Amino acid sequence: MSQNLRIPLPHPAADTPLGHVLRSRRSVRQFSGTPITLAKLAQLLWAAQGITDEAGKRAAPSAAAQYPLRLYIAVGDVSELPPGLYAYDPQQHALSPLETTDLRPALADAAIGDQPWVNEAAVVIAVAAAVTAIDTHFATQQPDGRRGARYAYVETGALCQNVHLQATALDLGMVLVGGFDDAAANAALPLSAGEETTALLCLGRV
Ligand SMILES: Cc1cc2nc3c(=O)[nH]c(=O)nc-3n(C[C@H](O)[C@H](O)[C@H](O)COP(=O)(O)O)c2cc1C
Predict the structure, then answer these.
(1) Most exposed among 55, 66, 153, 194, judged by the fewest C-beta atoms under 10 Å?
(2) DSSP alpha helices (H): ranges in the chain?
(3) Beta-bridge partners for 89
(4) CB of 177 closer than 6 A to ligand 1?
(5) CB of 75 within 8 A of CB of 83?
(6) Kind and range of the H or E run holding 174
(7) pLDDT tens sequence across 149-191
(8) Which domain covers residue 52, as residue numbers?
(9) pTM
(10) How many CB atoms lie within 10 A of CB 28?
(11) 29 CA to middle of ligand 1, Å?
(12) How does DSSP classify residue 36?
């Protein structure tokens, strides 16, 4: 078959609600510095890991429904919520307070190069993966035993895109920061044993 053959495709439905959000999504690195509401933060967390049916399945897919991802939320400027670090509990759709320190500066320090938007975002959602446990779960699927980690990284991407599209629909800006020093980011967060940071989602009003 000719490599030059092109079969024209039907036009994408870019004027549907989802099409509009997909077309509008961009990485945003400049924030107004004004607070986001707790309701919008709640919506973002639900889009990330919220329970969406009676079986306990979530908004983002997960290999064998193992759900190895955990969200740590570094709050800076959220109305009705003091600055500090929180964990998201999907079952209760609630936040667990972990620390009263604003961790945005520490996460900005962990970023590779100068990435001021990490500190200037109203909130940074740090995604962490229970890599050791998920590698053990999927150890028989691949001889080197790293299939679980691969799934966790893929799931991080799906979660990030959910949040990015939700942020776009809420008129919030977001940039996914994957460029960070692993040891520094892991040290900044009170991770459980076997967890590692996989993404920093910087969100705020534009
Ligand atoms: C895995 C991954 C890592 C990224 N890491 C960073 C980062 O560390 N800092 C940053 O400013 N943008 C980061 N980005 C955002 C990209 O620069 C951005 O998606 C790209 O320029 C395309 O622009 P768009 O998102 O506006 O379409 C990352 C994106 C991905 C998918």
Answers:
(1) 55
(2) 17-24, 38-49, 104-110, 117-120, 131-137, 147-169, 182-188
(3) 94
(4) yes
(5) yes
(6) strand 172-177
(7) 999 999 999 999 999 999 999 999 999 999 999 999 999 999 9
(8) 26-205
(9) 0.97
(10) 20
(11) 10
(12) B
| Inside any domain, residue 18 | no
Does the beta carbon of 30 lie inside 6 Å of ligand 1?
A: no
Q: 198 CB less than 6 Å from ligand 1?
A: no
Q: How far apart are CA 158 and CA 48, in angstroms?
A: 9
Count of domains observed in the chain:
1
* CATH number of domain containing 55: 3.40.109.10
Among protein residues, the one with the nearest Cα to ligand 1's atom 16 is 27
Question: Are 70 and 134 in contact, with CB atoms under 8 Å apart?
Answer: no
Coil vs helix vs strand at 159: helix
Helix axes 147-169, 38-49, angle to 10 degrees: 140
pLDDT at position 146, please? 87
Q: Mutation test of ligand 1: which of 154, 177, 200, 202 has the most ligand atoms closer than 8 Å to its C-beta?
A: 177
Query: What amino acid occupies position 87?
Result: A
Q: What is the pLDDT of residues 96-152, one digit of tens each?
A: 999 999 999 999 999 999 999 999 999 999 999 999 999 999 999 877 878 999 999
